[in-house]
Amino acid sequence: MERIDTADGVSLAVHVEGEGTPVVLLHGFPDSSYLWRKQAPALADAGFRVVAPDLRGFGESDRPQEVDGYRITTLAADVVAILDALGIVRAHVVGHDWGAALAWVLAGLHPDRVDRLVAMSVGHPNTARDASVEQREKSWYVLWFQFEGLADEVLPRDNWKLLREWVRGNGDLERYVQDLARPGALRAGLNWYRANLPPQRELRPRRELPRVAASTLGLWSSGDDYLVESRMLRSADYVDGGWRYERIDGASHWLQLDRPERVNELLLEFLR
User: Fold this and answer.
1) Is the peptide bond before 30 cis (omega within 30 degrees of 0)?
2) What are 14-45's pLDDT values in tens digits?
3) Which of 67, 116, 197, 249 reaches 20 to 30 Å from 122, CA-CA?
4) Domain enclosing residue 135, as ranges
5) What Å distances lie between residue 139 and 47, 80, 147, CA to CA?
6) Which neighbouring-strand residues pair with 217?
7) How do residues 212-225 score in pLDDT, each as one tens digit?
């Protein structure tokens, strides 16, 4: 792991592997760069330079406790800082969950830094407006996570019973429990939701994220318990650089863990 400091002094742990065209892998909640263990070697072996950070608040990176430290524009600046520190002018960017939301914002606000974009599970942020009842039902936890003190106290109860039920046996559950139990880790992870998805935003005019100039691949899995397919499909309306969509059947929200061969095949085909 390399250590890279951000503009506001947060130290990030960054896994770098391979040589060649750079590919940045961005994870979501409650993951870390460990999420990409089935993709990073395949990409490196195919001639890519893999850059997989533990995003702020996760893994071995610093865990600021202030909510404002997790605004999506700050998180995008973190990725830019990583690219600058590694001497990378332009990279392919692959994101999953919050990492996909971050990848969309990075491509919209820093188009000169993103070559090709792969968004997994989460569609373009502009598609979040006028959410359907189905999506609101799936996103119940987003509102629950807003309650500072309450969510932080209840989630770890009874050996993380609520978290275990929420994950539904998918992902890297035992690793999540171990990671989130560290001092300040749970609050840091929840701050991603509190900084960017506060309920009050329903009353405010929505900021329109710029259209994406990068050629983009959208991936969504049929067993996703948290996100509806329509948001990924409607992302095509906000991409100017060419759009491709692939549905991964037989996989949970963590499609890169459940169907790694198919995901790797699609990544290599698209990024080459």
Assistant:
1) yes
2) 999 999 999 999 999 999 999 999 999 999 99
3) 67
4) 2-271
5) 38, 29, 15
6) 118, 244
7) 999 999 999 999 99
